[in-house]
Specification:
Number of helices: 14
Largest sheet: 8 strands, mixed
Structural class: alpha+beta
Helix content: 25-40%
Shape: elongated
Order of helices and strands: HHHHHHHHEEHEHEEEEEEEHEEHEEHEH
Strand content: 25-35%
Radius of gyration: 31 Å
Oligomer: single chain
Number of strands: 15
Distance between the termini: 40 Å
Length: 389
């Protein structure tokens, strides 16, 4: 059954290509067309202009180019492109009219509308974005495109992924990208930034003790780059005496900066070595942080960033890499029809904040989430927040 469906899909794709590809038998097509007075009068003119058709050459060139790169999936690829051109979606009536025009103009093997819809549904189920329905708090129903699916496609897109920046950048006085902003580097909560960094074959997570060269214990809190080299803002760890005995606390000021080549051991390895070989560390207690201390305020606070098992993202990742993925989310009201009557649709869209500025504003990188002419923006925002959480 699956083989039969696959054959039907391939046959449908071939028929579409027959409709779109340039015919090499122009003479035979002309002879089959019904003759009338207009065609007789203009016959010589048509024959003289045959080789100067401005549309024929680009069509033939595109066909040959696609055959060169994807000969096995040419029909499926071109059909998918036609059906999913951005901002140029065919309605059911427009598609019926398009197929009728092909048929009356003598194009052979025109597909049926039901076969076309079957192919579109198969492609959508494999590579499309799901629209999730929500019933808003004010009683309106609206749909939100799946944000995780959009982000997954962007991460796998070879035209987008290499251009994404996940790390902050200290560029000095120069400022041209969002990732270079001083606010991001110094003021945003570090728990919202990229939680881990792969240095060599080891994974270092923020808010976990790490061993640096010189037998220094620190807690990395924020990763960033300087001239393409990875650095970390760190809090020093110190052992203090309390009524309950010795405990480790993180000193939040001044913030230390350590380059990536200064990191020796991540927390899991360091914890294992301190338990199995305490003599190598002067019999110090295991690095279980209990408090933070700010010398400027002379105040201590209970440690709440991680547990004795480390950063919670490490357990969630299960060996996979973890990235922070900032986005620019915005809402806009747009006119919902072509008449002069105002019919505002509130729409939520977003772009990837990690893209360079010249890329982020391209239409290709602006992603649609939801729209409604009845549900207000804050009601639709509930569905988006639910997906984020």
């Amino acid at each position: 059954m699956e083989e039969q469906e696959a054959e039907e899909v391939r046959d449908l794709a071939r028929r579409w290509m027959d409709c779109l590809a340039l015919s090499d038998s122009d003479d035979s097509s002309t002879s089959e067309a019904p003759e009338d007075s207009e065609s007789k009068d203009g016959g010589s003119e048509d024959e003289s202009d045959e080789h100067f058709d401005p549309l024929a050459r680009p069509t033939r060139a595109l066909h040959l180019s696609l055959e060169l790169y994807i000969p096995d999936e040419l029909q499926t690829c071109t059909l998918n492109i036609l059906a999913h051109l951005p901002r140029s979606v065919f309605s059911r009536q427009q598609m019926d009219l398009f197929l009728w025009l092909l048929k009356v103009n003598g194009v052979a093997h025109c597909p049926l509308m039901c076969s076309t819809n079957h192919f579109f549904e198969a492609i959508q189920s494999l590579h499309g974005i799901e629209s999730i329905p929500y019933n808003g708090a004010l009683g309106h129903q609206y749909f939100v495109n799946s944000l995780p699916q959009i982000l997954a496609q962007e991460m796998s897109n070879p035209l987008v992924r290499p251009k994404l920046h996940f790390l902050l950048e200290d560029s000095g006085p120069r400022l041209s990208e969002a990732c270079q902003a001083s606010h991001w580097l110094h003021n945003l909560p570090p728990e919202l930034m990229m939680p881990c960094m792969r240095i060599g074959s080891q994974e270092f997570f923020t808010f976990e003790p790490a061993l640096l060269t010189g037998d220094r214990f620190v807690v990395p809190v924020r990763w960033f780059t300087v001239d393409g080299r990875v650095h970390a803002q760190c809090w020093d760890l110190e052992l203090v005496e309390t009524f309950d005995g010795q405990l480790w606390q993180a000193v939040t000021a001044p913030v230390r900066v350590a380059r990536d080549d200064k990191f020796l051991k991540p927390y899991p390895d360091l914890k294992h070595d301190m338990v199995e070989h305490p003599e190598l560390f002067g019999n110090l207690p295991v690095l279980d942080i209990k408090a933070t201390y700010n010398p400027a305020e002379c105040a201590s606070r209970k440690w709440s960033y991680s547990s004795v098992d480390g950063n919670p993202w490490q357990a969630k990742a299960k060996g996979a890499r973890v990235f922070a993925f900032p986005i620019w989310l915005y809402c806009d009201d747009t006119l919902g029809n072509l008449s002069k009557k105002w019919n505002a649709h509130n729409s939520f869209l977003f772009t990837l904040a990690g893209l360079p500025q010249e890329e982020a504003q391209k239409e290709y990188n602006v992603h649609f989430l939801c729209t409604s002419n009845s549900a207000p923006p804050l009601e639709m925002l509930d569905g988006i927040v639910e997906q984020l959480e």
